[in-house]
Records
---
Amino acid sequence: MSLNIEQIRGLFPVLHQEVHGKPLIYFDNAATTQKPKSVIDALSNYYELDNSNIHRGAHVLADRATRYYEETREAVREFIGAKEFAEIIFTKGTTESINLVAKTFGRKFIGKGDEIIISTLEHHSNIVPWQMLCEETGAILKIIPINDAGEILFGEFEKLLSPTTKLVSVVHASNALGTINPVKKVIAAAHAVGAKVLLDGAQSTSHLEIDVQDLDCDFLAFSAHKIYGPTGLGVLYGKRDVLEAMPPFLGGGEMIKEVTFEKTTYNDIPFKFEAGTPNIADVIAFKAALDFVNSLGKPAIKAHEDGLLIHANELLSDIKGFVPIGTAKEKVSVLSFNINGMHPFDVGQMLDAKGIAVRTGHHCTQPLMKRFGIEGTVRASFSVYNTRSEIEKLAEGIAQIARFKNK
Amino acid sequence: MSSIKEIQEEIVSEFEILGDDKESTIFYIMELGGNLETFPEEERKEENIIKGCQSKVWLIADTVDGKVHYQADSNTDITKGLISLLIRVLNDRSPEEILKADLNFIERIGMGSIIGSQRSNGLASMIKQMKLYALAFQAKQNA
């Protein structure tokens, strides 16, 4: 069933404004999506009606806040198809989720000479934590190469796998190019040599249906703010046995069972990994974002976004000087490109003058940019509330800008 | 030769013609980059890059008959346009004039809202580096 996009746009207050005297066209969705009114209302309702610290409060507000907080955990469990709510840990975002795994699982189970495999497509947040771990432990980082379309070379990945591979940490959908990795195959191959697998789901969870049990990944990291939810909130999914074997991340309140000056015993998962007062308001509001996505259904969202990407490619492919970066067969709705002879920052600023918001630069994927021999790209990323007529305005804008240097 | 004040007035009136149309203003700034002198290839090196700019900006200066002569280049067209404006105002003047110069045209044309905060910081770094050159030449002349 096709979606009523005008009706969906009506749910997003921020979209209805002008910038530089022109209607805002928001194409920076891979950086963060806008928030529906229901999420904004959930945030203010929490502070107006329910604000309280969760767990162990002996009063109505604490009880309510706790219930709503845990309802989101259950909603997240369902959203990604996890077996049980205990496998859902709230973090600050994808970056913290990955760092949590590096600092706990990594420190305990990865040692000198062990290997960690990542891909050329990774965001810095899925590179740097592993480099830090390697520096600390003497483990070795291996990189899966890609082809010119921006797809990982699966055969090369298989060659990297060995019994010394302890972890494979790969992005599900590339933030810079949009490439969707064949993660199910990656996970199966990694498991065959006894390695665990972390999926960076920052860019995939808002577009693709995710079933962690079917994928069989050991960890999944993602952020709420890229799925129409609040900023400053993320999720780490981990399989129960893996999470239980891991030492805690931060020490403090909430994560303990009993503290004496002699010895502390730790709480059960997920609380073992949620030290301190968590981000209660944003967790509660995140449920409204998940409800929004569920109400539309991811297949319908993906179909609409795919349509936008196809439309954009049709309109742009003939423009002189337009150079697409990342042409994988399987993509989420990310359009990365350059214009011959122009710096991406200039292109971004010119599009901004037309009311079109895009992102420019290396997109926190400097090694990937280096692979393509470029400094950066212009990235337009589409979401469910974007329209075909917005794509047409983008194409017109790009054509005009390209003429500046490609006469 | 027009004074710093006169050239700034000229620039302000040029931008006034463009009005609030941000698109035309940006195109205009990019066109201005074409006015820069060809930058010597051998000077395109790390030590001539201005720190504090997001894009790469190379700046060199020399004195001819006691006046400071600047040459600059950038890897982005908008930045080239910006530095060409600065050069138009400050080029071939004595270090004293450059150091005293109040570059009020930047605020008067609303450059901050045209180019955004990141580039405004870069622009401030360019001005600082131009004045530092003037200061160094002044010290040399007074020595």
Note: The interface with chain A takes residues 20, 22-23, 25-27, 30, 54-55, 75-78, 115-116, 119 of chain B (CB under 8 Å).
---
Amino acid sequence: MKRIISILIENKPGALARVVGLFHQRGYNIETLNVGPVFDGSFSRMTVTTRGSENDVEQITKQINKIIDVIKVSDLTEGDHHEYEFIMIKFKHSEKIQKILKGLNGKIHEKNKDAMVMSAWGSSSDIEVAIKSIGKVNLLEIARSGSIGLHEGEKVLKI
Amino acid sequence: MRALKDEGVKFVFGYPGGAALHIYDSIFKQKAFEHILVRHEQGATHAADGYSRATGKPGVALVTSGPGATNAITGLATAFMDSIPLVVISGQVQSHLIGTDSFQETDMIGISRPIVKHSFIVQNTQDIPRIVQEAFHIATTGRPGPVVIDIPKDKTDPSQLFKYKRAKEISLRSYQPRVLPHPGQIKKASKKILSAERPVIYAGGGVILGNAHKELISLNKLLKAPVTNTLMGLGAYPAKDKYFMGMLGMHGTYQANMAMHNADVIIAIGARFDDRITNTPSMFAPNAKIVHIDVDPASISKIINADIPIVGQVKESLIALIKEIKRAKIKIDSEALDRWNIQISQWREKHGLDHDLYLSKIKSSMIAPQVVVQELYHATQGNAFVTSDVGQHQMFVAQYYHFNKPRRWINSGGLGTMGFGLPAAMGVKLAFPKQEVVCVTGEGSIQMCIQELSTCLQYNLPIKIININNEALGMVRQWQDMNYGGRHSASTYSDSLPDFVKLAQSYGHVGMKVTKQSQLKKTLEKAFAMKDRLVFVDVYVDPNEHVYPMLVAPNGSTKDMWIKKNTKA
């Protein structure tokens, strides 16, 4: 089952590598990864999506928690949550692709005689569906932010 | 230097090199601690590790960049697997050279990442005191472990002056190691334990690391339950106690493994259900409810699901548990418990270890390795610090040397590092110069760090080395005998072994060779009478001896054991 794990971590050199390394070391796979500084910039928030059973995820979160630089870890998928992913796509002019992306909050950033650059965002499952239906024809390149998410309601990830 | 002194460091084990030369120059000018020059950086980390295991204090090693750092890796991994607090300081090339493939550059932080509890790279010289203080704090608290401090050469330049400051206490927002057990869980555990008819206490290295052996003894004064220790836990519960069943697991005693399989409540304390303990996890202790006390929540329910998890320091948890058991209205069913203890005695009688083997084998020509350990036990009155390497000899010590006190048995359990024994014994001997320190090893393992014999001469460390020489990589050969049709692939070298007596002598020590049972006792006595000399006793033993019991794997539970050659229990 797909899991979204949010991690609040010290924004220090090497901290990201400790988390990423741990997934490999413990035999788990990272599907998507997003990271950026938050609050006063001394923290980073990471969002990692992975696949595993409940036991797997319990073990992953416990192991991540042991990393000294990690402040908090939470499995968003444990409860209700908001989750989105942002993508950018460069493609040869195609009505079909434009239409698909429009349906996902699509926005045009560049349009020249050969190609277009558009962005879009939506739940990762919608993004997956969109990428599948876009297919390979006319597609030049694609960049994905990876999932980011927050808990629903009062639950927050802060110190 | 000042920061290390403020941490109370007495010994630093190290080896100099370019990137560490500024540090070495200031070591020359100070008197707070003694620097022990090893002959290989692996020896430095193992010696610091041995020092820590024997004293409970953090061990410190200092190495240079590049090969110095990579040579320290095996020692770091060894300490990491057994949760030993070490601080390893590695020199690094100058900051402006980092990332340029400069001479003796290696990414120490990157290479050591999976095998350290934490690591620091010094970016500003004035951060050194804080980083050292944090490193010791992290290494020694919670579940202990090794910490690396990587220091670029320019950050130790003597021209970099600043005012030394030491914080009164350390608080890290991302690290709160002190965990007290949840009172509700303690209550539940007490209830479960007191309702048991066939309880077993399964105690591991965490009891020793957490200095909780007294509490463990007190707990069992109340319960009178059978106790087993893991390889790392030996000494946590006195081996002479009548409730002690010996070690459990792969080469554990018949009674300990049978008790685990048939228990209705297992009280796991500072132990982690390692694969050498559980055998096939799905077949492990089918009828047992598990109470699991550990400071590391990630150890709980990792392999075996815990019915009552207790996350907390072992000592505090046991104190709380003892209090709760004393307060509880229900009492343990003593009749059921008596029956259970009788059952265990019967198992012991049926297939238990023969601790009097040295008597029955007195006339035999070949020396049994088990007898060497038994004779060693008697020669040292069971009071020695015993380090070991890895293999059959290690298991024979674990089985036949009775450890009644914690921190006396020093071996690489988790990583299984050959070469550990001799340097570890150096660390122990420096910490306890008046005590008997013995390294039990094999002719395979000892050659992995043999160069430290030179260090022992330089610092006058009169360790006793008992080399159980079967002219083969015994444990490898045992597996090849049992599982590979007796094909001894790359496990023998009897035509090319050194003359260990001459080898010891060439390092300035005393060498003795024993080939007959009749010489064994006398030679050991002679060796131990030489108080001021390192004596290397090379004991040729029966090369065909196997370690039993041995769990049947794969697809076995802990009741499935080989108890001697070709015989299952």
Note: Helices of chain A lie at 15-25, 54-66, 95-102, 124-134.
